[in-house]
Specification:
Layout: H1 9-38, H2 45-74, H3 88-96, H4 105-126, H5 128-145, H6 158-172, H7 174-178, H8 182-202, H9 207-230, H10 233-238, H11 241-248, H12 250-256, H13 260-272, H14 276-310
Helix pairs in contact: 1-4, 1-6, 1-9, 2-3, 2-4, 4-5, 4-6, 5-6, 6-9, 8-9, 13-14
């Protein structure tokens, strides 16, 4: 991995805070939306599995084969499970085994979580308690016995599975939550925030306390979103043209934003010699700008290909 020669307490703390919430919140939202899809449908398992295959595994394979492995080989970028000097063939082998995936690990993890939740959904509809117990046992098994199994990122799905399950449970009661008065929602949000802060203060690196922080944080963010919906702030943001464009292209941004942060670090950090925090912000701006160009080019290519096919 790439590190600056000097440490930044602020940067380290920020990364730790983000590690508590970013992935769990995405998984929570995935579980919430999956429960919505399953609400009134029958015989939907095959449909959902096919949709997840197309949405997750096909982009994973195409991006890895055509973008990830070639670029990381070209620039010889050192990342997890890709030692310096790895050949193109070695990169493809590690990718095929789910060892070298870099940011695409999330697609694999989300696929396993989706598979679990789709199979769990009928049980969870009948009994929240039974579904929750099965989820907890599965997560504990992964955490305790599969951490040494690096293939296809199954060892990184313990917390995501719990997060997605809580998303499904919250969907079952979302109508009641959304009907709460703003004052009561604000009170619950405040209590959850206080609990999260207390847990973070007492966290000494224990994985299970980290789980509790993440799950509480997911519920906190959901209550905060429900509160924002009450005062129409979310609606104003979501109705903007910029938001609509970013939402439409969000998957492309995710797939193609790497390895630009690594390259900017390698090329610019030794030259600029600025503080890590400022460089992280600058790196974010550079990555966003370059990825936007890539997304625009891909959009033009797709439009051109569509016109050729039609003609």
């Amino acid at each position: 991995m790439l590190y600056a020669p000097e440490k930044s307490i602020f940067a380290i703390g920020s990364m730790k805070i983000m590690s508590y919430f970013i992935i769990p919140v995405f998984m929570f939202a995935s579980g919430f939306l999956l429960a919505k899809s399953c609400e009134n449908a029958k015989n939907i398992t095959t449909y959902l599995l096919t949709k997840r295959l197309k949405r997750l595994l096909i982009p994973y394979l195409l991006t890895g084969i055509l973008w990830l492995v070639p670029l990381y080989t070209l620039f010889d970028i050192l990342v997890y499970n890709r030692p310096a000097g790895t050949s193109l063939a070695g990169g493809y082998l590690a990718f095929s085994l789910g060892l070298f995936t870099d940011h695409l690990w999330f697609l694999l993890a989300l696929f396993w979580v989706s598979l679990f939740c789709i199979l769990l959904s009928p049980l969870l509809k009948r009994s929240v308690v039974a579904g929750s117990v099965i989820t907890l046992v599965t997560a504990l098994f992964i955490q305790e016995f599969l951490q040494a199994v690096p293939y296809y990122k199954i060892n990184q799905t313990a917390l995501p599975i719990i997060s997605a399950c809580f998303g499904m449970i919250i969907y079952r009661v979302h109508t009641s939550i959304e009907r709460l008065q703003p004052g009561r929602q604000l009170l619950i949000t405040g209590v959850l925030l206080g609990f999260v802060i207390i847990l973070i203060c007492f966290d000494k690196g224990n994985a299970y306390i980290g789980w509790l922080i993440s799950i509480t944080g997911c519920i906190l963010i959901y209550f905060s979103s429900a509160l924002l919906a009450k005062i129409n702030i979310a609606a104003i943001i979501c109705d903007s043209t910029l938001y609509e464009w970013v939402e439409r292209n969000s998957m492309k941004y995710y797939l193609f934003h790497m390895p630009f942060p690594y390259l900017f670090f390698l090329w610019l950090y030794p030259v600029l010699k600025i503080s890590p925090v400022i460089f992280i912000l600058l790196n974010f701006v550079f990555t966003l700008a370059v990825t936007t160009v890539v997304v625009l080019v891909l959009g033009k290519c797709n439009h051109l290909w569509t016109r050729i096919r039609v003609s």
